[in-house]
Each structure stands twice: as C-alpha cells, then as structure tokens.
Fold this sequence. Notes:
By secondary structure, this protein is mostly helical. The protein has helices spanning about 40-45, 50-60, 70-75, 95-115, 155-170; strands spanning about 130, 140. Helix 2 (about 50-60) runs antiparallel to helix 4 (about 95-115) and helix 2 (about 50-60) crosses helix 5 (about 155-170).
Amino acid sequence: GYTESIYCIKDGIGFGSGTTESVVHYTNYFDLRNLDSIDSTFKYDLPTGDNYTRLIWVLDNICVPSNDTSRKELLTKAGLDDSDFAGYKVSGKTDTDVRNDIIESIQQAAIWYYTNPSGEYHPTDSPVFYYSSSNTGTPTSVSNLDSSADIVDDPVQTLYSYLVNGAKTGT
C-alpha cells in the first residue's frame, strides 16, 4: 500500500500560477508552517489569517487512507469506523479501495474549503461527492453507490463536517 497521500493545495488554475493560467511544475518543497520559507509565487495562492490556520489544522488531521492506524485514528475522532463505509459498492473495485478513495475525496474537499474560500471551486458545507470506477467512467454520486441499504447516518458528510468544522474550532 501507499505510505503517503498527495493532495492539490488549491483547486483551479494551479498552486503557484498566481493569476495566470501558466503551467507550474510541482518541483518545490515548502514547510507550510514556515511561511517565510515559501516563495511569493506560491504564497500568493495560500489562504491568509484564520483560513491559513484552519488549512494547517486540516493538513495535521487528515489521514493516509491506506494506513490502517492513520485512517482509524481519523475516523475515530470523527465518530466513525471502517464499517460505516461498508455499504458503498463500485463494480470492479474492492470495498477497501472504494472506502479509501471516498476518504481521499473528502479530505481533498476539506483542503479546498479553506484554499478556495469563494467562487466556483469553493466546496459547500454539504457537497455532493462523485465516484467513478475509472478515469473515463461516468461519475456517480457517492450517495447513490449504496444499492444494498439506506445509509441514514451519512459517513461522507460526517467526516467532511468533522474536518471543516474541526478546523474552525481547533478540536
């Protein structure tokens, strides 16, 4: 399995591209806790003030979904466990892969919640997540992936709310 996850820091034209649509290659490494270490080209796309602090909280609290310890720690903090995702099924995908992909999508949206505070790339408080079994497949709403049972306590919204609201309160 993977030992790390990689996320886009900002949805849209790209981290480090400023206000232009130029291609920026991700060959730089920055310590996001040390703003002085970040080149102004990249710092431009980072949130400021409370949203910056909240972004750091989200990054500190997300997990590597394929790492059992990391994932279970996050899910426990959110009041969830692996079994809460058991109802989601995608043809050709294992339950583990589907669960991990959903968690990665939730975490990505929580990051973008603070790095895209407005506009077309800002996730709402209750976004609809979509899943596709391949890059060319037709996306399906995550809420429609469960054909075997009605999921009353929505683990997708629960985890997303934990990350977004936890960053606001620091808990």
